[in-house]
Amino acid sequence: MSKRTIIASTVIGAFALTASAAVSANSLDAIQNEEAKIHAAAAKSQEKINTYFEQSQELLIEYRTTVDQTENLKVYNDYIASLVEDQQRSIDSLQRQIDSIEDTKQGIVPLMFRMIESLEKFINLDVPIHLDERKERIERLRDLMANSNVTISEQFRQVIEAYLVEVEYGTKIDSYQGTIENNGTQITVDFFNLGRTALLALSLDQNHAFVWNNEKRAWEELGDEYLSSVVDAVKMANGVVPADLIKLPIQAAE
């Protein structure tokens, strides 16, 4: 071949290689660009995946919380339901009691009248300790029973209270002033009672002493051998002297 031909071939080959290299470089750039796009898309996808994962975790936590709250509410609702049932039973019981109030009133009112009557009879037969006070209490009870402004429960309370006061008379030592009749004459005296065991009276000048005879329903004058003991008994009851052994006229039990 001629030199010109070789040179031309060489030039053509060089151009071909250059063109091929240019094409290869362009292809590589395109591939790199695509890879970059793919990586960018993958990164965005991963971000979305991470976001969705976080949201799913939050939803899972919320779901579990909701389930726990639902269980707690169920337990609480069951508890409230049991309370409502118990309250309903109480309401039903109260309603039955309310329905029976009239029957109760019809039974308790006659009972209170019988109690007052029995208490009055007892006072008239008993040792006359604080007799005027006890009779006045009976009259107040009768007035109370006739007062429409006083509830039945309050009436019953005061009747029971009167019985309790009567019990106290038999359990304490007491001294107070009053009057007795002796041979048709009213005498002011200091009373002394040892429960219901003995009821004595001492004249204010301390020269006469008396004892109540419940069988005869009368006062009897005591001899001088009891006078100093009765004086001491009144002083003890009033707290003037300390308690001590004394000689008192006490009727023996039969």
Automatic annotation (TrEMBL):
A Pfam family that the UniProt record links to this protein: DUF3450
Residues in the signal sequence: 1-21
Protein name, entry field: DUF3450 domain-containing protein
Organism: Alteromonas aquimaris
Keyword terms, alphabetized: Signal
InterPro entries: UCP028069
Top-level division of the source organism's lineage: Bacteria
